[in-house]
Amino acid sequence: MIKRIFIFLMLTLMAVIFFKLASNYSENTELSKLGHYYVEKGPQELGAPNLVTAVVVTYRGLDTLGEVTVLFISAAGVGLMLRRTRRRDDDEDLEQGDREEETAGVHKPASEIVETATELLLPMVILFGIYVFLNGHLSPGGGFQGGAIIASGTMFLLLALPESHISRLMIAIIESLSGFSYVIVGVLGVIMAGGFLDNRIMDLGTYGSLFSAGAIPLIYVFVGLKVGFELSAVLDRFRKEDTGPL
Amino acid sequence: MSFLADLPISLIVLCSGLGLVLVGLWGMLTQRNMIRMIIGFSLTDTGIHMVMVSIGYITGGTAPIINDAVPMADAVNRVVDPVPSALVLTAIVIGLGVTAVMLSFAVRIYKARKTLMIDECTESKW
């Protein structure tokens, strides 16, 4: 009872704080200084029409590298948590029963509608994911969004064909290579341009064309591949816990 | 509902976001089922994202993409602040990672205890 009162009290106080915050709120009519600088100088400096991309990939590129690292660590954590634990032999019978119980749901085939729709849509979903991260500097979207779309394609695949095999080794190789290339591009920025993850190591190109904005599309391809395969690996881990070496 | 139309759009988003934060906190504090607690966390997370996006809004602003629709010379007066949007992009990804780890914890606890109720895991130590 006392606990309930505390919860109620806490939520009420939070509501009061929020109400005070919201009641004094007035909509901004002009950009903050930092935002003003980015909007004014961003297009000329970096050649990226999408300023959110310019901020994420270049101005605050180090944060994005940290973000990719956090995602990597959480994917590794999920892999660690959901790996198969080796049990003692006397638990064998119990484990056998458990496994039958668990796989009973997995073996149930998806309906024909889902299967056919997946076969039809999967290539398009993957293609759309690639489109989104390739055009990250021109239109809304980017590496993370494109990666999430690719992972949703994987989700499709797992729903329709639960038995389909996803190569852990391939995921690990692509993920490591793209993460490594991302850092290499960042270091090249120190050597050839203004600083870590500076996108001006390549020609800025024509403003608004696909191959422009220096290294931003390159970085987003790496981020997109990394995020897409990482999230696919996480989904695959949740599907079944019997994991081999990779 | 006509009074809603007079409110600034970002205030509506801000209030919805703060409301979601409260709902999520309530869910995390009162629910005993771990999956529901994780759902509460996700709601709080989403609410905070909405608050952050609404703070970056400029009256009458559009997406900060400078192309034919928003000429470069006039851009400063016509686009919303790109910084909160970029922060939210980061926050969404971090929230996703945290949720995935929490769900994997829930799966592990379920496998060990055959229950998702947090009350029955009081003496757990591992």
Any overview of this molecule?
The complex is a heterodimer of chains A (246) and B (126). Chain A is mainly α. In chain A, 70% of the residues lie in helices and 0% in strands. Chain A has helices spanning 2-23, 33-46, 51-59, 61-81, 92-107, 112-134, 143-160, 168-192, 216-239. The longest helix of chain A is centred in the C-terminal third of the chain and has 25 residues, at 168-192. Chain A is globular and about 55 Å long. Mean pLDDT of chain A is 80; it is low at 88-95. Chain B is an all-alpha fold and 126 residues long. Chain B has a single domain, classed as Helix Hairpins. Chain B is built from five helices and no strands. In chain B, α3 (34-55) runs antiparallel to α5 (82-113). Chain B starts with a helix and ends in a 13-residue tail after the last helix. The model of chain B has no long low-confidence stretch (mean pLDDT 84). At the A-B interface, α1, α2, α3, α4 and α9 of A face α2, α4 and α5 of B.
What can be said about this structure in brief?
Chain A is mostly helical. Chain A has helices at residues 2-23, 33-46, 51-59, 61-81, 92-107, 112-134, 143-160, 168-192, 216-239.
Compile the SSE list and pairings.
The complex is a heterodimer of chains A (246) and B (126).
Chain A: H1 2-23, H2 33-46, H3 51-59, H4 61-81, H5 92-107, H6 112-134, H7 143-160, H8 168-192, H9 216-239
Helix pairs in contact in A: 2-3, 3-4, 4-9, 6-7, 6-9, 7-9, 8-9
Chain B: H1 2-6, H2 9-30, H3 34-55, H4 75-78, H5 82-113
Strand content of chain B: under 5%
Structural class of chain B: mainly alpha
Which chain pair shows the most residues in contact? A-B, 57 and 47 residues
**N- and C-termini, Cα separation of chain B:** 54 Å
From the structure above, extract its key features.
heterodimer, A: about 250 residues, mainly alpha, 9 helices, globular, B: about 130 residues, Helix Hairpins, elongated
